[in-house]
Design goal:
single chain; 418 residues; alpha+beta; Rossmann fold; Dna Ligase, domain 1; D-amino Acid Aminotransferase, Chain A, domain 1; 4 domains; five-stranded antiparallel beta sheet; globular; binds glycine
Length: 418
């Protein structure tokens, strides 16, 4: 099977490395890719948001399967275009991708499916902002109603911070979503979904704030670990049965059947799981850790999802132990990351590339999240040690990373409230 992966992040690098381990995959191509991806897949350039361009490339490279990594092409209907050309595609239709692209649609689907989520209101008129803010908080949760790669979210106990963020979004023409705060530790559960069939991967936890001890602004994700030692046995089944399957069934009922990766972001509160958000694709940086433990052939799984035979794949196989991703970010990330710095030591096993490119034969930074370093080990402590040992060999001027990825779980400080 010849597989073309669309995207250029560490998530796509992780997908390609896992696909390369599948004996059923004969050729790997990626577009647009990055400096690290070029080592594992044939690299092509493409306008990833154009269905026409991605389809033309898929035909040119004789792809049997196209895997679309990021949400923007999915929301724009790139998977629909590829499928219309008769090529199998892993990724939902534009219709189904609204589960991520429109928070209002996601809330409506959840309400109809009886799935617990935060109470919310959309504000699109600045004159209504103050009254709406007063109906929430503290804590205030203020989100951009469109796609914002995690950076449009502010969670704060300070009313003026919440108001300022909402006002700035409105000034820039973005409707604002205000939400009630959900307590409890967060879980990212990725499920392969094909209509009403859902197959969960290992549960993971992301670290969204930029600084240690969850300080500083939200980012696209600074690190993740899997599995979750504090999550009770049976919780994954509970999430699949009370959250993922009802939502998948509701999408089928609406004629927007989902095919691809449905990512449930949940808060594990005292009353059970509640949805913080859905995404229509693999999460970043959780994917880098989750796929490091996957032993089942990824190409076969993605192809089965894309071709409507997910129900036949049986139980997934996982390596024992834990995996940790630590993101190395550029100076000034997330505000205004500096790019163009030379990186050394980024070619070791477990070092996945995101914002990198080759200039004059050197690897340089080309984005905010530059590298994802993945450690594995027999437990979370060993996986953390592995990741942080690998980081010592990497040099990127001005870069920063969190030193506490997975540490709360190792120290037994994470628990579900009673
Ligand atoms: N881990 C956050 C995201 O992928 O959106």
């Amino acid at each position: 099977m010849r597989v073309l992966v669309i995207g250029s992040g560490a998530r796509e690098h992780a997908l390609l490395l896992a696909l390369a381990r599948d004996p059923g995959v004969s050729a790997l191509m990626c577009a647009p890719g990055n400096a690290g991806i070029a080592e594992v897949a044939e690299q092509h350039s493409v306008d990833a948001s154009s269905g026409e361009a991605v389809t033309a490339l898929a035909k040119e490279v004789s792809a049997d399967l196209v895997v679309i990594g990021p949400e923007v092409p999915l929301v724009l209907g790139v998977a629909d275009a590829v499928r219309s050309a008769g090529i199998a595609c892993f990724g939902p239709s534009a219709d189904a991708a609204r589960i991520e692209g429109s928070k209002a649609f996601a809330k409506d689907v959840m309400a109809a499916a009886g799935v617990r989520t935060a109470h919310s209101e959309i504000v699109d008129n600045p004159a209504e902002l103050d009254a709406a803010i007063d109906r929430f908080g503290p804590n205030w949760v203020v989100k951009d109603d469109g796609l914002a790669a995690g950076k449009g979210v502010v969670v704060t106990t300070d009313r003026s911070v919440a108001r300022d963020h909402a006002a700035e979004l409105l000034e820039n023409g973005h409707p604002v979503l205000l939400e009630s705060f959900l307590d409890g530790p967060e879980v990212s559960l990725f499920c392969l979904v094909d209509g009403e069939t859902a197959v969960p991967l290992l549960p993971a936890q992301d670290h969204k704030r930029v600084g240690d001890a969850d300080t500083g602004p939200n980012t696209g994700g600074m690190g993740a670990y899997t599995p979750l030692p504090w999550l009770p046995a049976g919780a994954v089944d509970e999430i699949v049965n009370t959250v993922v399957k009802p939502v998948a069934a509701e999408l089928v009922k609406r004629g927007s059947s989902f095919s691809g990766l449905l990512y449930a972001g949940l808060a594990m509160g005292s009353n059970g799981p509640a949805v913080v958000e859905f995404n229509c694709r693999f999460g970043d940086p959780e994917t880098q850790a989750v796929l490091a433990l996957l032993e089942s052939p990824l190409g076969e799984l993605l192809n089965a999802t894309a071709t409507g035979t997910l129900g036949d794949v049986g139980e997934l196989h996982w390596r024992n132990g834990s995996a940790v991703t630590v993101v190395i970010a550029a100076e000034n990330y997330p505000a205004s990351p500096r790019t163009g710095d030379v990186i050394t030591g980024s070619d070791a096993e477990g070092v996945l590339h995101a914002g990198t490119k080759v200039v004059d034969g050197k690897i340089v930074s080309a984005g905010g999240r530059v590298l994802s370093v993945v450690g594995v080990g027999e437990d979370l402590t060993a996986a953390r040690d592995d990741a942080y040992a690998k980081i010592e060999a990497i040099k990127l001027p001005g870069s920063h990373f969190r030193t506490d990825i997975g540490l709360g779980a190792v120290e037994g400080k994470i628990s579900i409230p009673n």
